[in-house]
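## Example pair
The file below holds two records. Each record gives the amino-acid sequence first, followed by its structure token line.
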Amino acid sequence: MSRLGPIRWLVAVPMVLLALATIYPLLFTANVAMKTRREYILDRFSLASTLQWDNLSTAWNSVGMGRYFLNSVIVVACAVALLLLIGSMAGFALAQVRFRGSSALALVCLAALFIPFQVIMVPLARIMAGGGLIDTYPGLILAYVAQFLPFTVFLMTSYYRAVPTELVDAARIDGNTLYGVYRRIMLPMGAPALLSVGILDALFCWNDVLISLLMMPSADHRTLMVGITSLRGQYSADIPTFAAGVLIAGLPVLVTYLFLQRQIADGVTAGSTKG
């Protein structure tokens, strides 16, 4: 135990510092959001003397954040549904179905993970504009699917590779088609992975700014994270109101992390399973 003590401290101290560095910006934003403009100008680092809840309502109503919030919910829900459907089917096919070129296709999906969005941004915008999908819900949904599908396919493939092939063979002998095996066996078995990957995909889509800004240029179709930028322009001198808007936009993500942190951790480590 005496030998393990210093080692534990060497691990614990950096982790505590990292946790504080992560939590501090959130606490600072929440404190600023509760201040008056005068308090912030006099001392931005002091604690708020009184809680200014009006800042939250001002941020919510001034730039139509309710509409932006609804836009984000619609786009994220549809994109995640498509990602899970296509990703689970592709993961099952790459992991359990034997066909020529499956290994090469799996490598292509893995390689797509390393392509930054900035590389495909201009071609994607031209394709979407040619199809009349700019400034539409389907356009942004398809852009999210195209961007995050390789990640979803990779994790679902890793998960399904851990399923014994004998189970699939037995189901085929019983007369199930490939679709029957997927629907009756693989889809229920993959529910934990689907939940974890779905949470991660939802967080990715919710926090996105660049893709949404590219695909939804008009004010009426902005997502919540992009709508925060208009709040910054309108209240450039009123930092507490802007901080209140940032706090509102970040609350869904914070709540998701607090209540589903185990599933998120499982999703992050799903790709490390040994098939």
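Second record, same layout:
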Amino acid sequence: MTIDSKTIEQAALALRGAAETGKPVSPIRDLISAGGVEAAYAVQEANTKHYLANGRRLVGRKIGLTSIAVQRQLGVDQPDYGMLFADMDVPEGIPVSLDQVIQPKVEAEIAIVVGRDLPHPDMTTAEMIRAVEYVVPAIEIVDSRVANWDIKIWDTIADNASSGLFVLGAVPRKLDGLDLRSCGMVMEAKGEPISVGAGIACLGSPITASLWLARVMAKAGRPLLEGDVILSGALGPMAGVARGDVIEARINGIGTVRAAFAAD
């Protein structure tokens, strides 16, 4: 079933309003679920076009739902994606204000920086490996404009894959000699582990996840470009965060990244 453009814009406007006011909205799935995930991506694209027209700059993509268990929970058989804008980047060492988000949670990820344009929908694994300029550890600060994180697949896709902010580590690592599948991760708050995992959680490998993304984005008409950042998917479960928290993620072979949240 096709959802009309008026309904798509109604859903897009509701999510934009939540982002602007800081007040989450009720789930939008009842508006658009009859149109399937295509309708949800249409809502995301409507807001992407709005933001680009109003001066925001696209600098990459994020991959969500890379965990098979989470896919089953939401009733899907593939990941999803969202847009990364320049104003979502928080330099490491700069306090993160919780006033910038609504219902934040944190995930540790491997970020891939692309070294060449990726325009082909039939891109190969070898081409993806060649395109990796470097990798850095990352903390994604996920967020939801939907009240109480009451989301199904249509809600999260429409809501830019529940994106918020992201912090990248400042020491790049070349791919040579790294097996991203086996890179173990520990994320801590107040010296205590809050999430553990490894690269294999990302569709078996962050390279596989990034290849999926590159192909899908080429088909969608928004191909990844040289310099773009890929947040390749959570290495472990997401965790809650509060004012004053200092979150540190260590990824074997790649390095450490820290996100410090302002206390006020």
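Notes on the second record: The longest helix spans residues 36-53. The two ends are 47 Å apart (CA to CA).
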